[in-house]
Amino acid sequence: MMLFSRVRGLPVLAPGGADRLGTVRALTVDAVSGTVTHVRVRRGRWRGEMVLALDAVEAVGPDGLVARPPAGPPEAPPHRDLLGSRVLTECGEERGTVLDAAFDPADGRIEAVLTTFGEVPADRLLGLGDHALVIRAGRAHHL
User: How confident is the model at residue 69 (pLDDT cuts 50, 70, 90)?
Assistant: First the structure.
């Protein structure tokens, strides 16, 4: 398992390590399926951002990611940051703020979301929008 906070800022290298593609800016999440779908890569101050589908990532480790650069323009869903999002139940009750999330880098499956109220299992995620992460009502597991 890896934490979102540990992946942000890591270098992204092309296979063979010859070319540095950039650094990880963020991970895009599909909250309904509970998975990371894309990696947002900052290419440099003037070069903008590259979006990589998770299946283009060949390896993830504490020192960086190895990924195949996209062949063409990516078809990526809109990005909303999970980290720092408000957490609301489907009934509109406040459940804190997202501090971090644990995921499996091999398949992108989110294991848990860590909030200011405790840990929320991935099977309680309902959606992630501009306003908040929405979860099924229930108690968070306190840390």
Answer: confident
Question: How many residues in total does the chain contain?
Answer: 143
Using a cut of 0.90, tell me whether the model's pTM lies above it.
no
- Domain 86-135, CATH: 2.30.30.240
Give ∠ CA 38-42-44 in degrees, rounded to 5.
Answer: 160
Instruction: Look at residues 79, 78, 82 and name the one whose alpha carbon lies nearest to residue 102.
Output: 82
Smallest CA-to-CA distance from 78 within 107, 40, 119, 25 is with: 40
Contact 122, 106 (CB under 8 A): no
How confident is the model at residue 139, as a pLDDT? 58
Residues 2-67: name the CATH superfamily: PRC-barrel domain (2.30.30.240)
